[in-house]
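A favour, since you know our structure tokens better than I do. Go ahead and set the record down below.
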Amino acid sequence: MDRRWKALMLAVVPGLGHLYLGRHWRGLFVFAIFAIAVNGLYFARVANYPGTGIYVLSLCRVAGAAMWSYSLLHVAHLSGRFERRRVAERKDYHFKRGLARYLAGSFDAARSEFLTVLRLDPMDVDARFHLAMTQKALSRRRETARALKRCLADDLDAKWRWEINSELDKLDQAGQGRGRG
């Protein structure tokens, strides 16, 4: 089971999801408030503790529900499950559109799509490489060299290294991409 889903499952008990994600003090705080609210409910309802009226009972209900809701929502936010999926879908959509526009010869539109992908994920090496190739097709040599150098720096898996070096060599021979620093 994925770490994010484990955190969400543990968040059913307020504070445990936070503890699992390494937010120890927040998890203890949330659990303490929830425990105080449940204790207040017990004394107000079951033990019929004197001096606990409808206001204490209502306050304990609200506090318990608030801590439970907060715990679930905050752990969902911390785990980022929902946001990451939406961003990945948007990124994939714009990347595919950029490739389609590039292959159709609509380089300005392709450039716009690849820039959108890079706004969503600045470390996307594929989008950066294709942006460089699009800028090359638009005869923007300096932007091409800059994008290729950034791509080379970000390409930790060396996926595009050979292609990048080949394109930088071509730019060096043309006299526009000097200094690979």
About this structure: DSSP finds nine helices and no strands in the chain. The chain has a mean pLDDT of 85. The chain has two domains: 3-79, 87-174. Residues 54-79 form the longest helix (26 residues).
